[in-house]
Hints:
The protein is of the alpha/beta class. Helix content is 54%, strand content 15%. It has 6 helices and 5 strands, in the order E-H-E-H-E-H-E-H-E-H-H. It has helices at 17-29, 49-59, 75-81, 94-110, 130-138, 149-197, and strands spanning 5-10, 32-38, 66-71, 86-90, 115-119. It has a 5-stranded parallel sheet, with helices on both faces. Helix 4 links the parallel strand 4 (86-90) and strand 5 (115-119). The longest helix is centred in the C-terminal third of the chain and has 49 residues, at 149-197. The chain is elongated, with a radius of gyration of 25 Å. The termini are far apart. 4'-phosphopantetheine binds at residues 9-11, 38, 74-75, 103, 106-107. 4'-phosphopantetheine (PNS) is lined by residues 9-11, 38, 74-75, 103, 106-107.
Amino acid sequence: xxxxxxxxxGSFDPPTxxxxxxxxxxxxxxxxxxxxxxxxxxxxxxxxxxERRQMLESMTAGFDNVSVDTFNGLTVDYALRVEAQAILRxxxxxSDYEYELQxxxxxxxxxxxxxxxxxxxxxxxxxxxxxxxxxVAQLGGSIDCLVPELVAQKLRxxxxxxxxxxxxxxxxxGQHAAGFASGERESERKIKSRKKKS
Length: 198
Ligand code: PNS
């Protein structure tokens, strides 16, 4: 019997409930599904590839036929390497369609034997993206129900580190400014005392 293996490539920075919803749907129609995190040296991600891998591994631990891997280079080359026959991608809204169609057709041109399969996550995740989750978390908004609790926890840790770093940087700038101001006052005092003497 033919077994169908698919890859689900993406950035997953961070993985969201929308990703998890798609993984669950994909795991039901494919015999094997590999969640493949792109190692992109050009991007400056919030989470390292290892952090994303750990989060996705915990999130998918309950699915027997789902594994997590990382790759660089072309998605189609990776798919070929792991002997996958399909690429799974999610389409949330019509706005995703143009970019996804372009990618799917380019991937087909590069590797005609590989099929792209689109699936739609639940409507409640149709507005959800990793970029918005990062932005909301960075600006102190609630990310409950948008990401699994373990991802929310990691995001809170990241924000704490960033806030501490910003506080320390602000203190250092403040100290420099105070030092500069007191230096200025000292110079003014010296000038005034010189004027008095003369
Ligand atoms: O989660 P994302 O950022 O929407 O995922 C995009 C991804 C990783 C699927 C896409 O950028 C990709 O496939 N990159 C690998 C390089 C590649 O194959 N480029 C040609 C795509 S047509």
